[in-house]
Design a protein that fits this description.
- By secondary structure, the chain is of the alpha/beta class.
- It folds into two domains: 174 residues, Isopropylmalate Dehydrogenase (3-Layer(aba) Sandwich), CATH 3.40.718.10; 128 residues, Isopropylmalate Dehydrogenase (3-Layer(aba) Sandwich).
- 41% of the residues lie in helices and 21% in strands.
- The protein has eleven helices and twelve strands.
- A ten-stranded mixed sheet has the order 2-1-3-12-11-4-5-10-8-9, sandwiched between helices. The chain has a two-stranded antiparallel ribbon with strand order 6-7.
- The longest helix has 17 residues.
- The relative contact order is 0.18.
- The mean pLDDT is 96.
- The structure holds 1,4-dihydronicotinamide adenine dinucleotide and magnesium ion (MG).
- Magnesium ion binds next to helix 8.
């Protein structure tokens, strides 16, 4: 079966790393029907468009979306985040942001093998709030955090299911229940109330500040972490930094109910500081394509690319050199 994939290369290093991801998918023998969409800072600066309705409709009709990265210092903060990235998450109901991390033991810790399940459609990212008397000494700014029973429960449900499929079967809720008492209470009760449905999964809780210490010093403590949108955003940058760096961190924005396509993208941004220099590591984008293939049911191809990524772990070179080496390793195994 051919999968129709909407590809958004985006800005900066986005197109560079996406090209390598597609090269690896092709090497694994998976035929994709690719529809490329020009979205991001480039398009916005050229014609003021962020996400035209017809592009959204086309992406909605795809089986999956692969995105490089969008953003540029020339675009005001929030335009692409709210208008493109968050809009896609909300409109396509990509309610789970799944971010796996792996890293060999080192002198700081005993190794990383964990997955963060970040709630992706609520929390402080809903854009609730506003400002009053802006620019004056009496300025007021509020930014609400929305947490619904429906939204939290479906995310926690997904995390329990995932924990059950992993060897350790361990799930940690990360929050700040001692200070964010209303939202924290809802999250804590959702986990407690769902837990009996997964008696084989062991449940733990950490405050988010303590989790930052543990991620650095004792990441082996974690198997699956479930957390809210903002904590997940921050924790996953830290988890990326302690496990191979931002150039290797992959993510999946999932609609687990499959009422529409899911979106796969590296955790990193468009890295304007290194764009065009060939210094971008394509591994995060390639690993994101692996998550995409798994979700599309192409497990064998996903496993081949995963094995090639592991075999080429220490390969250095330009973006294209690393990508070609990994693709050649994939092809050799087909
Ligand atoms: P960034 O992730 O683009 O870069 C942070 C640092 O990591 C930079 O020093 C960069 O050179 C390095 N880096 C990132 N990816 C790398 C790779 N694959 N290989 C080697 N080094 C890599 O984050 P930053 O600088 O905060 O944002 C740059 C732009 O990207 C901004 O416009 C931001 O809004 C946007 N952005 C977009 C995201 C997305 O499309 N999902 C996510 C994060 C940021
Ligand atoms: Mg982030």
């Amino acid at each position: 079966m051919t999968h129709r994939v909407g590809v958004v290369p985006g800005d900066g290093i986005g197109p560079e790393v996406v090209a390598e991801a597609l090269r690896c998918v092709e090497a694994a023998g998976v035929a994709l029907d690719v529809v490329t969409h020009d979205l991001g800072a480039g398009r916005y600066l050229r014609c003021g468009e962020v996400l035209p309705d017809e592009v959204l409709a086309d992406l909605r009709a795809c089986d999956a979306i692969l995105l490089g990265a969008v953003g540029s210092p020339d675009v005001p903060a929030g335009v692409l985040e709210r208008g493109l990235l968050l809009r896609l998450r909300f409109e396509l109901d990509l309610y789970v942001n799944l971010r796996p991390f792996q890293g060999a033991p080192n002198r700081h810790n005993g190794g990383v093998d964990l997955v963060v399940v970040r709630e992706n459609t609520e929390g402080p990212y809903v854009g609730e709030g506003g400002s009053l008397r802006r620019g004056t000494p009496q300025e007021v700014a509020t930014q609400g955090s929305v947490n619904t029973r429906y939204g939290v429960e479906r995310c926690v449900h997904f995390a329990f299911d995932l924990a059950r499929r992993r060897a350790r079967r361990h799930l940690t809720l990360v929050h700040k229940t001692n200070v964010l008492t209303y939202a924290g209470d809802l999250w804590r009760r959702c986990v407690e109330e769902l837990a009996p449905g997964w008696p084989d999964v062991q449940v733990a809780y950490d405050h988010v500040d303590a989790a930052c210490i543990h991620l650095v010093e004792r990441p082996e403590r974690y198997d699956v972490i479930v957390t809210d949108n903002l904590f997940g955003d921050i924790l996953t940058d830290l988890a990326g930094a302690v496990s191979g760096g931002i150039g290797r961190a992959a993510s999946a924005n999932l609609n687990p109910d499959r009422t529409g396509p899911s979106l796969f993208e590296p955790v990193h941004g468009s890295a304007p500081d290194i764009a065009g220099t060939g210094r971008a590591d394509p591994r995060a984008a390639i690993a994101s394509a692996v998550l995409m293939l798994e979700f599309l049911g192409e497990e064998a191809a996903a496993e081949r690319i995963r094995a090639a990524l592991a075999a080429c772990e220490d390969v250095t070179g330009t973006t294209a050199e690393i990508g070609s080496r990994i693709a050649a390793t994939v092809a050799a195994k087909v």
